[in-house]
Amino acid sequence: MSKLIYSALASLDGFVEDTSGRFDWAAPDAEVHEFVNELERPVGTYLYGRRMYETMRFWEDPPDLAAQPSYIREYAAIWQAAEKVVYSRTLRSASTARTRIESELDAAAVRRLKAEATRDVSIGGAELAAQAIAAGLVDECHLFFAPVLVGGGKRALPDAVRADLELLDERAFADGTVFLRYRTKRDAV
Prior knowledge:
This protein is an alpha/beta fold. 28% of the residues lie in helices and 30% in strands. The strands form two sheets. Strands 5-4-3-6-1-7-10-9 form an eight-stranded mixed β-sheet, sandwiched between helices. Strands 2-8 form a two-stranded antiparallel ribbon. The longest helix is centred in the middle third of the chain and has 12 residues, at 70-81.
């Protein structure tokens, strides 16, 4: 059975975007990006909300990819090879390969996907991940905290949801970013 992993890069005060919807402060440097590539390598399917998908579809055909550093080319290949499921009530068709559109997150369908998948599943987008966390679907959280306070915006983790977590791994990077990997305790029982 595969794991459902929520991965997010947030400000130290817990926001994935600021009050203006910007997240340029979250761009990983080479060291962090290479670490992310290692974490993403086992992922076979990405689950996205519409807004996260629209951000991530950049990786379908990045401009001037051949001239980019190897870690950028590598991430593009990892992303392109994976299946994508986009949950949206407004998108009618996908603009990337290996992508299908679903109107809403169906917990039973995600449980089946996890049970049948041979590779891990990643969920991206704070709002979609909040639904999955509330439904008890998320097995691990991979949280990167950038050394910046943005004072408000979209929260990385949901309000009014309790989940007991067990710390599995932590790492500090030279740029001040900190990585924390947690497992939901229900998986440890």
